[in-house]
Amino acid sequence: MRKLLVLSLLTLCTLTVGAKSMVDIWKAIPDSLMPYVDRKHRTEMVEFIRMGLKGDVDNLLGSKSTMDSLTSNFIQVRASEAMMMQIKRLPRQGSDSILCVVRTWFGPVKSSRIQLYTENWKPIEQDALGNRSLDSMLPMFISRPEGMSEDKFNELKISFDFLLPYASLVSYADDLQLSVSNPLPSQERNIDFERVKKLIILKWDGNIFK
After folding, report:
1. Is residue 13 part of a domain?
2. Is residue 57 located within the same domain as residue 143?
3. CB 176 within 8 A of CB 113
4. Do 160 and 94 fall into the same domain?
5. How far is CA 60 from the centre of its chain?
6. Do 187 and 158 reside in the same domain of the chain?
7. Which of 76, 114, 130, 142, CA to CA, is 20 to 30 A from 64?
8. Residue 14 maps to a domain
9. What's the domain range around 57?
10. 10 Å Cβ neighbour count for 65?
11. 99-123: b or e for each residue (b if 16 or more CB lie within 10 Å)?
């Protein structure tokens, strides 16, 4: 019994020592993923957050980058006016935790890229959505609301210039939120678009979001 207890404690200590904090993960992020902020300024972001200050620093573009959120398994950084990055640590079936990174670009429309990594920032050759891609899911993001005629709905679909899917991780759950954006020429068109676009929430099952 005593040997079993000692072994359990040693195992727990090993896991604790081996586990990387989100701070360590953030500091070690490859420059190719976060070219706007060098390691020194990434460290400053964390220090500001810990002091209860706004986590913004000067970036290499001559503007500001801001860390909006830092928890034990989630980071959100507004890298520039044009790009936001979210990092979520997710449990994986029968293996170590992995990182899901969502980068979203802001222009006339929003668009996102989703990628999985190990905690050592090695890319995982697996799509976070399984055998689907964001682009292949486009038809799912538009649906006819109750009370809208089929003709009106089809007319609206044709009028949309083009659609781009975007994604967002959430800090409080292992979920991925998906929706779609469209460059809109008028306020009236915007109202119509908001009526027909959908928000889809996928849940992490230990291997993919579904």
Report:
1. no
2. no
3. no
4. yes
5. 23
6. yes
7. 114
8. no
9. 22-66
10. 24
11. bbbbbbeeeebbbbebebbebeeee
User: How many whole angstroms separate alpha carbon 192 and alpha carbon 151?
Assistant: 14
pLDDT, tens digit (0-9, with 9 covering 90-100), for 85-105: 999 999 998 889 999 999 999
Structure pTM? 0.86
Q: Where are the beta strands (DSSP E) in the chain?
A: 55-58, 64-70, 74-80, 83-92, 95-106, 110-117, 164-169, 175-181, 200-203
Is the confidence at residue 14, as pLDDT, over 50?
Answer: no
- Tell whether 120 and 185 lie within a shared domain: yes
Residue 187 has pLDDT above 90, yes or no: no
> 38 or 14, which is more confident?
38
Would 34 be classed as within a structural domain? yes
Find the mean pLDDT for residues 49-71.
94
H-run or E-run covering 190: helix 187-196
Q: Compute φ and ψ for 125, nearest 5 degrees.
A: -80, 65
How many domains are contained in the chain?
A: 2
Q: Looking up tokens 């999985």, which residue turns up? A: 116
Q: How far is CA 18 from the centre of its chain?
A: 25
Q: Are residues 134 and 171 in the same domain?
A: yes
Q: How far apart are CA 114 and CA 99, in angstroms?
A: 10
HSE-CB for 40 with a 13 A CA cutoff: 3
- Claim to verify: residue 199 and residue 135 sit in the same structural domain: yes
Distance, CA of 186 to CA of 168 (rounded, Å) = 26
Distance CA 194, CA 38 (A): 38
